[in-house]
Design a protein that fits this description.
The chain is mainly β. Helices cover 15% and strands 44% of the residues. The strands form 2 sheets. Strands 1, 2, 4, 8, 9, 10, 11, 13 and 14 form a 9-stranded mixed beta sheet that branches. It has a 5-stranded antiparallel beta sheet with strand order 7-6-5-3-12, with no helix packed on it. The longest helix is centred in the middle third of the chain and has 15 residues.
Length: 210
């Protein structure tokens, strides 16, 4: 019997203090979370999102949930429209408290190298990492510094995914960042690597804290 794994890795940047548990960040936008599905064989998959907040955008159209035919290479065929997609996309707003006591302070010019290293370690493949970096790098590399931390259940418990059939392994990487003019001292966070087994679901997203 295959052991089901869930590695929940999300990121949040501090809005103010970096060594306390933030009580809440109201109206934070979770920007461009995208969901990849990699079944071992072609099969129909349903995906539902339970968000503690407001779903502001989804593509393809969410309705009461996504229903797709998923292929092993990640291609998704929408069962309602017959159109093909590379991933499922959503955005929303929420007010979630995060543990901001550990993370990374990265100089803006080093953002690409940092993301390449950390995303690979966390388990994103080259395609996923490339799409992540292409989206976020233009927003981050011109900042003097970016303060980045990675969360777990603080994010996933407020943005739950219900997927049928149930995947064998799930990776959820959520990065958010706070632009800084000057570096701050923060303990470095230990990250956990991820191995794909069987039907794998991968999600990445992010948010900027102003």
């Amino acid at each position: 019997m295959r052991v089901r794994k869930n590695v929940l890795l999300t990121g949040m940047i501090t809005l103010a203090a970096v060594s306390i548990l933030l009580a809440g960040c109201t109206d934070m936008r979770d920007a461009k979370p995208v969901i990849y599905l990699y079944p071992e064989q072609t099969q129909e998959v349903s995906v539902q999102l339970e968000l503690d907040g407001k779903l502001t955008c989804a593509y393809p159209e969410y309705g009461s949930g996504w229903r797709v035919k998923a292929y092993p290479d990640g291609t998704l065929l929408d069962q309602d429209t017959g159109k093909k997609y590379n991933y499922l996309f959503w955005e929303g707003t929420s007010g979630i408290g995060y543990d901001l006591s550990r993370g990374f302070v990265v100089e803006g010019k080093d953002t690409a190298e940092f993301l390449e290293e950390k995303l690979a370690y966390l388990g994103l493949n080259e395609r996923e990492s490339n799409e992540f970096i292409v989206y976020w790098l233009p927003r981050m590399e011109e900042n003097n510094y970016n303060l980045i931390t990675f969360q777990g259940e603080k994010y996933t418990e407020h943005a739950k995914l219900k997927i049928s059939p149930e995947p064998d392994s799930i990776l959820r990487v959520f990065m958010a960042y706070k632009p800084l003019n000057k570096p701050v001292d923060i303990p470095e966070q230990e990250l956990e690597p991820f191995e794909r087994e069987g039907f794998t679901v991968v999600e990445w997203g992010g948010a900027e804290m102003e």
